[in-house]
């Protein structure tokens, strides 16, 4: 590549750039320089962002306040470029002060761990750099997305297959479900909008993900029309709620939806992973009856972000009909190949990343049995943690975990003899934030906390990564006590 | 295999194996995708029919895994049959080429694997995104404002629609569209289709996207905009947004922003500028005049993954607003993410500005590139693209058989190739039909031979023509000459 563009510091005139002798693409030394830069950058990434970042002896995070961090990073964008060594140092600094989400003691979110096959697939995706709107632009990735979706549909239990695509996040998948249900209810809405229609209402549980509320706002329903209203047309059931990891009873809900002819969508972004486990898939019993499913492979199954599937039990091209705009500059009908392979008009996006590949390669690499084993192990670890919590003084479970979320309070010694009262709750509410601050400043681990309904702040431990072991969970409990015993 | 407590002692994944795989796979990526993929002596694409490709790839997902050797072969296969979008002869879309700094940034984003919703999980990137947005806003002409990175320009355009709606009728967030008058959106027929898709998605309805006439260059006619707004009002509808375009998809036209802004001011409509394609001219002192008046807009969509070669995806929405409109419009205040009792300033938790929950780190790729080449380097990139376009246009005028649609304003060069057999036959009754068949055949031939990729499409009543967009910093005059020769070679016998 023409590295003179990379190192360009305003010295050559534009006329010189047009000279065909200078900097022809593929010229040996230019490619070498580019290759050398990328090799060095990758070496840093492998050492610092992969190897060290997954090493239990290293910190999970290197906490700095925003003001300190701004100074350290030298974020300013200037007119002239910087040297190669400065850029590599920028990469090192970015890594140093970023949170190591692949660390065995990162439990803060519903994603964790480091899956090397997925990471390789991510790197390939970045290098290949294409968009999934047409077969001509992404032949390999189009077929891979289709193969993965079909396999997922088999796991769900849709014998006749269906349709689907990968989205930039589960929130988007949930929005697609609402939109499809609305379109099925009345296809005319696509053209005329919803002003004149009866007020349609979305039903979900209080524990449902907030993306349903955001969907209601964005799609024109209004957040007040989630829960209670005039004409229900859509029900969202959650398989694996965000905080408690609860599973709505899909079979029973499906009975009701069938009776009232409502679209049933299952937000299985978090809990979908249980489908690969013969032991735990019962949590989603009935899922083959639903109209649509959102399932994020970047959560329990550890694909790199983002890897969010949206699946719909439909063979009538509903997805295409609902979203298409037939842009003639992309979806020409006179192409020389079968244009039904152009998936772009199923989407509300134009350019779309080939996210399915990041999990297809993992599945090829490890196989279904290994995926199953990983899920079973994560849930066994969660059970272990729950048992330990029950044995230890000062730790109290919020509820018996159903999945991989283990929610509990840590009650410091000073509060242990207080009676159950509002006063105890108020004091307890301040414990988790203080412990969180300490753990982040020491960089020893990261765990989330939140309040929930009228319950005071509690920790939510999420067990995902196969790299995590019993010792790490023991450490978590020891560390919380160590950080919080003087509160 | 039942996971018992005893199995829980040792970690399951062997990181040494994983790291070795990363190492080996990376070598293949460099060789097959980066080196060969940018080498003019290699093909742009290795065409296979879908059924054949499916067989070659062995797509099936099975119970058992595979050894590393197999997986590395798979990596090679994926590289082989994928389009080399960084190739000097790839001209098919509005992205091309490769910038190695941004590539390093992209690899780094993938390796660090985090979401941009809170400072606690993405401290570096929250600050970095803010700085990049500030720099881009400065180029628009705003010293303050708001914004964020979106998963694509279509989403940025939707956000603008949502904000405009919310500003006018804040109650729509909770009550929905049911109680509102019929809201209407104004755009040109040459605008991107995401305006229509967004309108359908958000409940407005595609029919409420009113198309404003364009001149023969494809630019919105302000007088017609004014008339259509008046008409819409007189019909009892409530116009609320004009979505105009800086750099239309096919022709690369720039709507006249100052005059459109006058009309928006007059009628109090939100002015959104879809500069996903054309926004990068703002880096160029020579060409930024094309977007004169952009500072008067309320919002701007801009995709650095297009002309700036930042790599997919890199799309921003920039806002003039300083009243936290973005957050108010989108927030849902989820207590499991946006706790108010955190130990740092929670204004740094930007997640609630977005309609997404998890949001990828897209700012790093642009930041690294900008740091490496400076604004001056990016300016050169833009200027060079214009020069290439000028060169191609001049050459086409000299060659028989190449007919431009019109003189390009930007770097989209739209033209028909008229094979010798059709030359001079414009008056024939079936001329248009026969001409329409030329581009698809040439396209098929170029793809099956893998020599280059150029897009074609019809537009209005104009039959299939080619659209070449020249933006890659890897391209030189030789590639332009090759492109012209190759079209002739592939189409002369038609």
TrEMBL record, chain A:
<dbReference type="GO" id="GO:0019752">
    <property type="term" value="P:carboxylic acid metabolic process"/>
</dbReference>
<keyword id="KW-0210">Decarboxylase</keyword>
<keyword id="KW-0456">Lyase</keyword>
<keyword id="KW-0663">Pyridoxal phosphate</keyword>
<dbReference type="GO" id="GO:0030170">
    <property type="term" value="F:pyridoxal phosphate binding"/>
</dbReference>
<dbReference type="InterPro" id="IPR021115">
    <property type="entry name" value="Pyridoxal-P_BS"/>
</dbReference>
<dbReference type="GO" id="GO:0005737">
    <property type="term" value="C:cytoplasm"/>
</dbReference>
<comment type="subunit">
    <text>Homodimer.</text>
</comment>
<comment type="similarity">
    <text>Belongs to the group II decarboxylase family.</text>
</comment>
<protein>
    <recommendedName>
        <fullName>Glutamate decarboxylase like 1</fullName>
    </recommendedName>
</protein>
<dbReference type="GO" id="GO:0016831">
    <property type="term" value="F:carboxy-lyase activity"/>
</dbReference>
<dbReference type="InterPro" id="IPR015422">
    <property type="entry name" value="PyrdxlP-dep_Trfase_small"/>
</dbReference>
<dbReference type="InterPro" id="IPR015424">
    <property type="entry name" value="PyrdxlP-dep_Trfase"/>
</dbReference>
<dbReference type="Pfam" id="PF00282">
    <property type="entry name" value="Pyridoxal_deC"/>
</dbReference>
<keyword id="KW-0127">Catecholamine biosynthesis</keyword>
<dbReference type="InterPro" id="IPR002129">
    <property type="entry name" value="PyrdxlP-dep_de-COase"/>
</dbReference>
<feature type="modified residue" description="N6-(pyridoxal phosphate)lysine">
    <location>
        <position position="299"/>
    </location>
</feature>
<dbReference type="InterPro" id="IPR015421">
    <property type="entry name" value="PyrdxlP-dep_Trfase_major"/>
</dbReference>
From TrEMBL, chain B:
<dbReference type="GO" id="GO:0019752">
    <property type="term" value="P:carboxylic acid metabolic process"/>
</dbReference>
<feature type="modified residue" description="N6-(pyridoxal phosphate)lysine">
    <location>
        <position position="306"/>
    </location>
</feature>
<keyword id="KW-0456">Lyase</keyword>
<dbReference type="GO" id="GO:0042412">
    <property type="term" value="P:taurine biosynthetic process"/>
</dbReference>
<comment type="similarity">
    <text>Belongs to the group II decarboxylase family.</text>
</comment>
<keyword id="KW-0663">Pyridoxal phosphate</keyword>
<dbReference type="InterPro" id="IPR015424">
    <property type="entry name" value="PyrdxlP-dep_Trfase"/>
</dbReference>
<comment type="subunit">
    <text>Homodimer.</text>
</comment>
<dbReference type="GO" id="GO:0004782">
    <property type="term" value="F:sulfinoalanine decarboxylase activity"/>
</dbReference>
<dbReference type="InterPro" id="IPR015421">
    <property type="entry name" value="PyrdxlP-dep_Trfase_major"/>
</dbReference>
<dbReference type="GO" id="GO:0030170">
    <property type="term" value="F:pyridoxal phosphate binding"/>
</dbReference>
<dbReference type="Pfam" id="PF00282">
    <property type="entry name" value="Pyridoxal_deC"/>
</dbReference>
<protein>
    <submittedName>
        <fullName>Cysteine sulfinic acid decarboxylase</fullName>
    </submittedName>
</protein>
<dbReference type="GO" id="GO:0007507">
    <property type="term" value="P:heart development"/>
</dbReference>
<dbReference type="InterPro" id="IPR021115">
    <property type="entry name" value="Pyridoxal-P_BS"/>
</dbReference>
<dbReference type="InterPro" id="IPR002129">
    <property type="entry name" value="PyrdxlP-dep_de-COase"/>
</dbReference>
<keyword id="KW-0210">Decarboxylase</keyword>
<dbReference type="GO" id="GO:0005737">
    <property type="term" value="C:cytoplasm"/>
</dbReference>
């Amino acid at each position: 590549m023409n590295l003179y563009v990379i190192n360009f510091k305003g010295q050559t005139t534009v006329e010189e750039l047009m000279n065909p002798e200078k900097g022809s693409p593929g010229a040996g030394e230019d490619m070498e320089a580019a290759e050398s830069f990328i090799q060095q950058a990758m070496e840093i990434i492998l050492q610092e962002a992969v190897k060290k970042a997954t090493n239990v002896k290293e910190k999970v995070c290197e906490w700095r306040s925003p003001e300190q961090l701004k100074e350290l990073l030298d974020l300013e964008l200037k007119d002239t470029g910087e040297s190669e060594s400065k850029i590599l140092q920028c990469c090192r600094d970015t890594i140093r002060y970023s949170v190591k989400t692949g660390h065995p003691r990162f439990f803060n979110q519903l994603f964790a761990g480091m899956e090397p096959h997925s990471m390789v697939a991510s790197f390939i995706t970045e290098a290949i750099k294409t968009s999934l709107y047409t077969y001509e632009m992404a032949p390999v990735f189009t077929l891979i997305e289709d193969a993965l979706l079909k396999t997922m549909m088999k796991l769900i239990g849709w014998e006749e297959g269906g349709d689907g695509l990968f989205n930039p996040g589960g929130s988007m998948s949930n929005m697609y479900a609402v939109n499809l249900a609305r379109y099925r209810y009345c296809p005319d809405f696509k053209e005329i909008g919803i002003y004149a229609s009866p007020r349609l209402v979305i039903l979900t549980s209080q524990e449902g993900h907030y993306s349903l509320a955001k969907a209601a706002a964005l799609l024109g329903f209004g957040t007040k029309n989630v829960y209670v209203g005039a004409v229900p047309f859509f029900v969202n059931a959650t398989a694996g709620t965000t905080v408690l990891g609860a599973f709505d009873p899909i079979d029973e809900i499906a009975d009701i939806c069938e009776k009232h002819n409502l679209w049933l969508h299952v937000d299985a972004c978090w809990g979908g992973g249980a489908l690969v486990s013969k032991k735990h898939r019962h949590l989603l019993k009935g899922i083959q009856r639903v109209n649509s499913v959102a399932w994020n492979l970047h959560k329990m199954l550890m694909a790199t972000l983002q890897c969010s599937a949206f699946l719909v039990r439909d063979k009538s091209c509903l997805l295409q009909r609902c979203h298409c705009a037939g842009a003639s500059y992309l979806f020409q009908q006179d192409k020389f190949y079968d244009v039904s392979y152009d998936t772009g008009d199923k989407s509300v996006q134009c350019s779309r990343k080939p996210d399915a590949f990041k999990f297809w390669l993992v599945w090829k690499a490890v196989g279904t049995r290994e995926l199953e084993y990983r899920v079973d192990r994560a849930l066994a670890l969660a059970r272990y943690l729950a048992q330990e919590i029950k044995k230890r003084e000062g730790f109290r479970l919020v509820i018996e975990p159903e999945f991989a979320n283990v929610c509990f309070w840590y009650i410091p010694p000073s509060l242990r003899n207080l009676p159950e009262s509002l006063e105890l709750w108020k004091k307890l509410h301040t414990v988790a934030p203080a412990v969180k601050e300490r753990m982040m400043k020491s960089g020893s681990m990261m765990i989330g906390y939140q309040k929930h309904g009228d319950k005071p702040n509690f920790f939510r431990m999420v067990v995902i990564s196969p790299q995590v072991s019993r010792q790490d969970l023991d450490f978590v409990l020891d560390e919380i006590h160590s950080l919080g015993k003087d509160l | 295999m039942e996971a018992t407590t005893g199995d829980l002692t040792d970690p399951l994944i062997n990181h040494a194996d994983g790291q070795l795989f990363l190492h080996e796979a990376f070598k293949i990526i460099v060789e097959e995708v980066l080196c060969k993929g940018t080498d003019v002596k290699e093909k742009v694409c290795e065409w296979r029919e879908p059924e054949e490709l499916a067989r070659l790839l062995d797509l099936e997902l099975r119970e058992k895994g595979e050894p590393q050797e197999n997986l590395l072969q798979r990596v090679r296969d994926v590289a082989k049959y994928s389009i080399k979008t960084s190739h000097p002869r790839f001209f098919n879309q509005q992205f091309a080429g490769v910038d190695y700094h941004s590539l390093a940034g992209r690899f780094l984003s993938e390796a660090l694997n985090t979401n941009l919703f809170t400072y606690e999980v993405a401290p570096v990137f929250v600050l970095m995104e803010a700085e990049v947005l500030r720099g881009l806003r400065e180029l628009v002409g705003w010293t303050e404002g708001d914004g964020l990175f979106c998963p694509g320009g279509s989403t940025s355009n939707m956000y603008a629609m949502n904000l405009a709606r919310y500003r006018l009728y804040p109650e729509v967030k909770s009550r929905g569209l049911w109680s509102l008058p019929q809201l209407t959106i104004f755009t040109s027929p040459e605008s991107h289709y995401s305006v229509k898709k967004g309108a359908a998605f958000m409940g407005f309805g595609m029919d409420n996207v009113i198309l404003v006439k364009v001149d023969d260059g494809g630019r919105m006619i302000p007088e017609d905009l004014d008339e259509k707004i008046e008409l819409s009002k007189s019909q009892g509808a409530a116009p609320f947004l004009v979505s105009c375009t800086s750099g239309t998809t096919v022709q690369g036209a720039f709507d006249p922003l100052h005059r459109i802004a006058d009309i928006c001011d007059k009628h109090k409509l939100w002015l959104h500028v879809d500069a996903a394609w054309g926004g990068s001219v703002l880096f160029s002192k020579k060409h930024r005049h094309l977007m004169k008046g952009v500072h008067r807009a309320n919002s701007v969509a801009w995709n650095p993954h297009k002309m700036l070669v930042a790599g997919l995806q890199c799309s921003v929405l920039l806002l003039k607003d300083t009243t936290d409109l973005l957050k108010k419009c989108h927030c849902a205040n989820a207590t499991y993410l946006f706790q108010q009792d955190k130990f740092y300033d929670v204004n740094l938790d930007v997640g609630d500005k977005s309609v997404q929950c998890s949001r990828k780190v897209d700012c790093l790729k642009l930041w690294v590139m900008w740091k490496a080449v400076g604004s001056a380097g990016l300016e050169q990139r833009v200027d060079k693209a214009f020069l290439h376009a000028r060169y191609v246009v001049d050459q086409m005028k000299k060659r028989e058989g190449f007919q431009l649609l019109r003189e390009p304003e930007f770097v989209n060069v739209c033209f028909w190739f008229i094979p010798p057999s059709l030359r001079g036959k414009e008056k024939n009754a079936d001329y248009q039909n026969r001409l329409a068949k030329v581009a698809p055949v040439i396209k098929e031939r170029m793809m099956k031979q893998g020599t280059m990729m150029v897009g074609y499409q019809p537009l209005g009543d104009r039959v299939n023509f080619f659209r070449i967009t020249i933006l890659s910093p890897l391209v030189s005059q030789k590639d332009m000459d090759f492109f012209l020769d190759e079209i002739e070679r592939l189409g002369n016998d038609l």
